[in-house]
From TrEMBL:
It comes from the Bacteria. This is Antitoxin. Gene3D superfamilies: Met repressor-like. Pfam families: FitA-like_RHH. The keyword Methyltransferase does not apply. Keywords: Plasmid. It comes from Enterococcus faecalis. InterPro entries: Arc_rbn_hlx_hlx, FitA-like_RHH, Ribbon_hlx_hlx. The keyword Nucleotide-binding does not apply. Residues 5-38 form the Antitoxin FitA-like ribbon-helix-helix domain.
């Protein structure tokens, strides 16, 4: 694994990180490692969510178009065969 150092972090921030790490039963290093991993994974998940939303929108539009075409064809079929359906 790679290492990096972050400088000039306010003491209040370090104290807050230490408190949160302690609440989670972790060391400062372990807590920050998990926090960074979670942040990266969250960004990846957000990207996947956006792709999924785009896919759903595209497919929904295609389904609506297909349903409208099917409805039109069914109405034409019923008209040709003299079938009436009460609304």
């Amino acid at each position: 694994m790679k290492q990096f150092m972050v400088r000039n972090i306010p003491e209040k921030t370090i104290a807050g990180i230490d408190d949160l790490a302690k609440q989670n039963g972790q060391s400062r290093e372990g807590y920050i490692r998990d926090l960074l991993n979670h942040h990266v994974l969250s960004a990846e998940v957000e990207g996947l969510n956006m792709k999924y939303e785009t896919l759903v929108q595209t497919m929904s539009q295609e389904w609506i178009t297909a349903l409208n075409a099917n409805t039109k064809a069914l109405h034409k079929f019923l008209e040709i065969h003299g079938v009436k359906i009460d609304d």
